[in-house]
Write a structure and sequence with these properties.
494 residues; alpha+beta; four-stranded antiparallel β-sheet; 30 strands; 13% helix
Length: 494
Amino acid sequence: MNFLAKRVLIGLGAACFLLSACESTTIAPQSDADCVPACAERFRCLGGNCFLACETAEDCPSEIPFCNEEGLCDLAPTADGDIEGMESEPTEDGDLDFTDHDRQETTDDDADQIEADDREEVDDGEPEQPDSAEEEDLDLDLDSNDGQDGDESGSEPEEDQTETDEPEEQPSEVETELEEYECPCPEGRCCYNCEFLVGMACADAGWEYQCSPGGVGSCNANYETRQLFQICSGSSPECDGPVVTGSGWVVIDQCKSYEQCTLDGCVEARETCCECQSGPCCDGCRFKNTDSVCRTIEEEQGCPWGNDPGDDIGVRGIYQYCSGGTSECNGNIVEQDWELAWDCWDETHCTHGYCMVNECQVNIDCGMGAPFYCRNGVCEYHEEKCQGGACPDANTYCNTLYTICLPKVGPCRDDADCVGNPAGGACDPAMQKCRGATGCLPEINNCYSGTECRHLDEFLGYKGDYCVNCDNDSECYPGLRCEKRTLYPEVCVP
């Protein structure tokens, strides 16, 4: 270390100790609330400013390569006896050489030693000075005696007529050295108490963008960003240090499957990103997976668990699935097991794949628009509804009460089942067939056992449909009798 630097350190140390003229450059930590706006994730608030924090040296940029004991990036590691952030190295002559951005505390013993070394350097080759006030006084006394012995007249020495000039007050060594000290960092964004700040965020350096994963040009990627800051270098008053990131990457947009990620954001690029654009196994950009049904071959809804109150409705079908590698429906064909379709309440039961009430009085009790009608207090399923009051099958007729096509031959349970039946509007309880009061219907042969329904067109005899070949009245409808005839067969007539 050169002579002037040593003297400056001594002077600064003495001035700070005696005059309290220097302020400490240690900046007290503060909470993030003291920094407005708040510090980024990688920074810590100190003295109202944000400094780059670290856990290890790997968190610091190469220009500021160390992580000190306070967890801040610094130009040098913190060492015992040094002020935080100060770097000191021994030179060839054994002195400690301090960089211009650091400072060293000087103890009283160090100051005395340095002053003694300086005295030897300055006084080398000059006449040796008295070591103490007593030696100086002794020299004065000897000079006085020599003067008296040399006075031949023995007269008293004449009194000095001229007044001795008092010596001018000289500035102290500390004051002189303070005047000679030049502040290395007097002003600037990165200065504080004549020292260079290290790692403080001094300017916003904008934002950085990336696409992840896959990089720029990838499809269905994350569009991410992070903020950049320029920090103080520790060797310049200007904001010209390295640029560092303030936090990790943050996702600001998720590109869709048909979008390509660029540094300007997500842009639509179906021709580049998509596997397909149409088809039963294409979602508009990607092939559907093998769990996707693309065709229903057959589907059945029924009552696999019974028809008792509370039994539920089930559904099953035969389906074809996507293959996962094409937009066409050419995957596996699977016949499924029964699965639950709907829960039926305890007041209902499953019938023909519907939850139906257990009892009814009129058709509306079986559901508005439902394919059921109320028949003898029970909701029955419409096997075939009437179409314009008629039925396409010649063996059925349209029951106008139920609006359903029922077989002409029955069976019937009451007269309501025979409304509109050409065989007659009455339900015969013995045959459980519909019949008329006197006539029958040949096509269904709705006569009692042992007789048959025949269409008669007799000359001066019966004309119409009658039950013939009876042996007695019991083989005729109630209220009819068996008429015996010679030329014609026996017939049931009123």
